[in-house]
Amino acid sequence: MTIDWLAALIMGLAGSGHCLAMCGGLAAAMGMNQSPARLLLYNLGRISSYAIAGLLISGALFSVTALYPNALIYLRGLAGVMMILLALYLIRWNGALIWLERLGAVLWRRIQPLTRKLPQQNRRGGQIFLAGMLWGWLPCGLVYSALAWAALSANPVQGAGFMLIFGLGTFPAMFLTGVLSHRLSHIIASKGFRWIAGLLLLGYGIATLWIAIQQLQRMVH
């Protein structure tokens, strides 16, 4: 469990540069260049959406694995593949997860109109938090990779916890860029940091996939 949550934190930190590049325009449109308190509410809303998504997908798979225990083997293999693709994505092989973001865009097209119904100026605390929650459903290969890993737990509480820690990993760059300085975001978005984190996740993904293959072989024989 500890190593899975460590992986979640690394995924969030390593993907922060991607978050800044992908969400920067949306953040500005939502009025992110405002007070630290408003920035905090936006980000808490976004992270809450990640936790809810982890809860939902892990809860759904909990029932599946209760009926078909061997499904966990395939989930482990899928999680390993997604971790490998994420690692390649972080070291700038953009094609690794673009296809997944395009699939997620179908859901986003249904959610995006809701963002226009929220007032852009003089938002209250609840409206700011809600806007952040809607932002959290923006199609993102990074988030979908984390969800694939959260699904491996097949446990609603653990899945939500994994995505919560992942979201907290993305928080420093997203929050501090708007409040203090760009120094931290520059470090996180640097090529060296991306490669180090990418290689760590690549090794973790390969090891997880290898375990799944071995389990599948034992099941077949």
From TrEMBL:
The keyword Transmembrane helix applies. The keyword Transmembrane applies. Keywords: Membrane, Transmembrane, Transmembrane helix. Pfam families: DsbD_2. The chain crosses the membrane at residues 6-29, 50-68, 74-100, 128-152, 158-180, 192-213. It comes from the Bacteria. Residues 7-206 form the Urease accessory protein UreH-like transmembrane domain. PANTHER family: HEAVY METAL TRANSPORTER (PTHR42208:SF1), HEAVY METAL TRANSPORTER-RELATED (PTHR42208). This is Sulfite exporter TauE/SafE family protein. It comes from Aliidiomarina haloalkalitolerans.
